Amino acid sequence: TEREYEELTVSEVARGAGVEAETALKVLEVIQQFDPPGVCSRHLKECLLIQARNLPVRDTVIEEIIQNHIEKLGSKNYKAIARAIGITVEEVYEAVKIISGCLNPTPGSGFGTDDSRAIIPDVFIHKVGDEYVITLNDDGMPKLKVSSYYRQLLAAGATGSDDKARGYIQDKFRSALWLIKSVHQRQRTIYRVVECIVKFQREFLDKGLKCLKPLVLKNVAEEIGVHESTVSRVTSNKYVQTPRGIFELKYFFSTGMSASDGSDLAVEYIKEKLRDIIRAEDAKNPLSDKQIVDLLKESGIVVARRTAAKYREALGFLSSSRRKAHY
After folding, report:
1. Which domain CATH number covers 320?
2. Are residues 25 and 87 in the same domain?
3. What is the pLDDT of residues 193-252, one digit of tens each?
4. Quick check: is 2 in a domain?
5. Same domain (yes/no): 291, 321
């Protein structure tokens, strides 16, 4: 598949095809010579090796790294690779640049369908003067109404003799009205939730991420008089377009921490500050979690080292030692 490798063994394929395993293996080897290089590989290592052996100039270091040190490659432990092979870290880094730049772990991806979709906002927030105006995007909503034909049938059959048919139509008519009411109620709930978000996060809309406030489902649920689960359902996979960009509605719900000045800061803001700190660090001398904590403190954000490490990992950054190994 595009992003995964088939876990069937050659023997299993042979049994399914009713041929000898040796025959299935030979067929596989022939198919693996097709373009794009690496197609029909059984695992990542085989996929990359096939491509490495098809490079204009074969490089034994690249093949050695893929064959025997692919786990260290994935964790970017370049120093360990250098020690194991007996080369410099710089040579490993050069090999890695070729591996990441010339080899494709999903060679069939160019032939699959692109599942990416442009995000279409469910709600729009526009600033008009000093106020924020909320508009629901009804383009994707079905235009529901009860057929006039069945309305006429009910009216005509009000004094008719076919009680069973009339009862059936009345039952479906009530179901249709209930469905229409439910859809309208859901849209109304979404509107009220967004209205509440605008109220709580007005400063964020005015001034940006630093002013994003801690907000939990319970706050909104109590404000509009519904259960927390209702707020969770109507905000799931819903997006809003604001003057500051498009956000998933869930983005506005975040726990918080107290700043040194006593104000509340949303976790998303703290993560953004941490991201900025790491991106600005000296790549050859990356910051430790303790140093990151100290820099956050200078910005008025007090967090424990464990918390900083948890946020760093959530953002996809390696530890300082492993970031240094990358360089």
Report:
1. 1.10.10.60
2. yes
3. 999 999 999 999 998 888 888 888 999 999 999 999 999 999 999 999 999 899 999 989
4. no
5. yes
Does residue 180 form part of some domain?
yes
Domain of 138 in residue numbering reads as 123-252
Does the pLDDT at position 1 exceed 60? no
Which helix H or strand E contains 199, and what residues bound it?
Answer: helix 163-200
Half-sphere exposure of 308 (CA within 13 A, CB side): 23
Instruction: Verify that 127 and 248 share a domain, yes or no.
Output: yes
Count the domains in the chain.
Answer: 3
What is the Cβ-side half-sphere exposure of residue 87, based on CA atoms within 13 angstroms? 15
193, 230, 197, 192: which is closest to 214 by C-alpha? 197
In the chain, the DSSP E strands lie at 123-128, 131-136, 239-242, 245-248, 256-258, 264-266
Residue located via tokens 């023997």: 11
CB-CB neighbours of 58 under 10 Å: 10
Q: Are residues 158 and 69 in the same domain?
A: no
Integer angstrom CA distances of residue 70 from 9, 62, 98, 222: 21, 10, 14, 52
Number of C-beta neighbours around residue 72 at 10 A = 18
- Distance, in Å, from the CA atom of 213 to the CA atom of 140, rounded to the nearest integer, reads 31
Q: Within this chain, do residues 104 and 142 fall inside the same structural domain, yes or no?
A: no
Q: Can you give the pLDDT at residue 260?
A: 65
pTM over 0.85: no
Q: What is the mean pLDDT of residues 98-121?
A: 72
Of 38-42, 137-141, 217-221, which has the strongest mean pLDDT?
A: 217-221
- What's the pLDDT score for residue 43? 81
In this model, does residue 3 exceed pLDDT 60? no
Indicate if 23 and 93 belong to the same structural domain: yes
Q: What is the DSSP letter of 121?
A: -
Q: Tell me if 49 sits within 8 A of 66, measured CB to CB.
A: yes
